[in-house]
Amino acid sequence: QVQLVESGGGLVQAGDSVRLSCAASGLTSSNFEMGWFRQAPGKEREFVAAIRWSGDSTHYADSVRGRFTVSRDNDKGTVYLQMNNLKPEDTAVYYCRATHRITGRAYWGQGTQVTVSS
Fold it and tell me: How far, in Å, are 47, 63, 79, 102, 116 from residue 76 at the CA level?
């Protein structure tokens, strides 16, 4: 059974940095793409960043490119989202998602709140 658990959110000020973690278990192959998404109040969930469980390919939304960095530690089974120079518009619940590259089946974590005050 796949389980994703996010952590690291909180209340920060504009310009601060935060690192989110997504601890993954039950991923029985490396054929997964790990993604970060976020959902602000009253808005749809949107893509933030993604990385493959194997290889170094990464992707970012235009709104975070250059400020956010996604990485993984295969030994720890954890994916990270380093967020620098945070802005109030980054305030959202951040979700981790694991998507099987062949079947397309997706698994979601429960989310972690990030609030950026101005």
Answer: 24, 29, 9, 24, 28
Mean pLDDT in order along the chain per 10 residues (118 residues)? 94 98 87 95 97 87 98 92 98 96 94 97
Q: How far apart are CA 10 and CA 77, in angstroms?
A: 22
Assess contact for 7 and 110: CB atoms under 8 A.
Answer: no
